[in-house]
Amino acid sequence: MKINEIADQLKASVSLKREFKEALSDCMKRDDATEESILTQIELEALLEHNDLSRAQKCQELRWRLHKLRYPKLAEAEQRFQQAKKKLCLPESIHINPSDFFEKKEIKIEIKSRSQKEFKEQINKLKTIQNEIDDLFV
Amino acid sequence: MKPAVAYLPDEIVVEESVKQAPVTQRVLERLSQVPVRFLPDSNQVRFALSGDKQAQTKGKKVLALVNHKGKFLKPRADVPHYRCYNYHYLYWGTNCHLECTYCILQAFLNNPLITLHVNTEDLKKELTERFQDPSSFWRVSSGEVADSLAMEPITGLMEELIPFFAQHDNAVLELKTKTSLVDSLLKLDHRGRTVVGWSLNTPKIIQEEELKTSDLDDRLAAAKKAQDAGYLIGFHLDPLVYYHEWEQDYQQLIQKTFSLIDPNRVAWVSIGGLRFLPEMKSIIQQRFPKSKIIYGEQIRGTDGKSRYFRPLRAEMFKKINSWLKEISPNLFTYLCMETPEVWEEALGFVPENDAHLSQLMDERALSLRS
After folding, report:
1. In this structure, are residues A35 and A2 in contact, taking their beta carbons and an 8 Å threshold?
2. Containing domain of residue A128, as a range?
């Protein structure tokens, strides 16, 4: 498979290589498509020729493109969640994550505080976004 | 109309201890053309297939009539976070020849033979003892690890069990099938203690994924016959499969069903999405390479099973439920193995727990008893 050569060229880890192969093979079977046509669909050539991206970044981008093709609705929800989270402009010490694959309709908020002052600031930040988090509930 | 493919094994293996059992005698008489081997223990045939990549397929060609030494009534496994009603399943036999691509038994059973537990006197004795407490109510499914009726023309087992359940006021027997093999049940005195249930799917899914089962028309004609014979009917819209034309196809399926069936004599309709153990993927790829059922947007649920991404299945269930309620607002619908989130999104309410759902189902069954 061509994907093997590409994964080697990008120095992808063994597990990532396996992930690429599985997503590609699933899409080929689902769509009755050839490897060539799937790789064209995700615009692989342009990605590989991209001069501003490192090998690791190309790997992650390839992973995302295959994931998006294999799970379009899930990928759309993930993208929506990330965009909604970005809008909140959270400090690095506050993490908001959905449940795995959005299986539960809940979010997990994690705060890392090193002092009471910091904690109060974080709580105040959370108070300011309390009416803007509806988009996080997929 | 296309009926289910009749079961015809290449060989029957009979454990010597059940040589004289009435079910054994019946099976041997009804399959008199099939070679028979008597053995002290059928496990040697099963073990001979272990490690064989074709074991699943080869095993279905052997019918084993065995003496079951364990319990016949087993509780449904509890699955945290996914809600379903409480029931027991009847361990009268295992495996099935109908070859549904997605069948969980392919990964779940460690015995590939089609196996019948023919010591039915022990089975009835155990049930009689368990049913003795009049304060408890027993929901018993006979379609958990085998299709309830696929083997009926050979075994006559349900024909024996339905009158048995008719004698017990605190139990209900549910059959679950993808066949139309009801003729031998129509004249039985069931006293409303048996619900005959059909798993229904769209013609496309039946043709592509439920390979040796009855087609939709044949199943519905059988359901009509059973309803006319006074049986309560159950339907299982499970597994729902997401594909491009799913809305149109499932809506037509519901309309067709209730153009023949009186919804007022339907005990319940369950709704459930395709779900499978992760190891099923390679089994399906190997046994049914044409099947595309595993390439949907299935994610890993908190119970480890692959199932459709939640918003996708909630959308399906909500629409299916609304089409059912358009037929009759009184239809009792429930979700099979679903999270409280999906219950809320799709049906607009969440049973407090499994026991609460069970209570609702008991009330429904009792209210429809003649």
Report:
1. yes
2. 79-136
